[in-house]
Structures are given as structure tokens and as C-alpha cells.
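Researcher: Here's a chain I'd like modeled. Treat it as a single chain, no partners, no ligands.
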Amino acid sequence: MTPLSDTRKDHSPAVRLGHDAVSAVKLSQELTADIDAWAETHQITRSDAISQLLTIGLHASRPAASLQPQLKDPITIEQNAIRQIDQMLDPALPADERERRIRRLIDGPAEFAGERIDLPKPYG
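Model: Modeled as a single isolated chain. C-alpha cells:
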């Protein structure tokens, strides 16, 4: 009998030392057929094909959050917003009209200026 490793901290079942974990997954018939075709092309078993395809998939893409830096600085956030808005505006607009539209979107309507939490409040 193969010795078992300690139970993991997440309380999942222990895995036999020296052996890969065996996992049961539910696959549609279409997905199973696609995996079998891929396995046949690569002359490997279905199990090895699933393992290789998962490895390829996990290394092919990273979460979107890690691709974009976390923007916390208000000035950087505003600069990025200005750049995005500028890219969406019609390039045929005169420069002063482009600036007016960008400011209107960034600053918001004047009637809401008192409600903005990022602007200092007048005392008095």
C-alpha cells in the first residue's frame, strides 16, 4: 500500500505520494469527441490529452487583472480617462471643442459639483 500525504490545509483528500491526483470531470459528448480527436492526432491517451490541453490553456492566458496595472492615483486615473475620451471623439472636431467635450465629461455637470466626493468642499 502506498503511504498517504498529510491532509492539505484546505481539507481536501490526501494524495498518494509519488502519484498524480486523479480527477473526475464532466465533459459534453462534443467536447469529449474534440479531445479524442486531438489525442489521436498527437498519438496520446485521452487522459494525457486532457492534462496537456489544460496545461496549454493555463499557460496561454493570464487573468486580465494582471495585465493592467492597478490605477489608484487620481491623477493617473484622470489622465487615462482623458486619453480614452480623446480617442473616441471625432478627429475632425476643432481642438477647442474637443477640449470642451473632454472637460465636460471629466468634470461632470456643474449642478453636481457639490455632490462630488473627490473635490474639496467650500467651508462657510
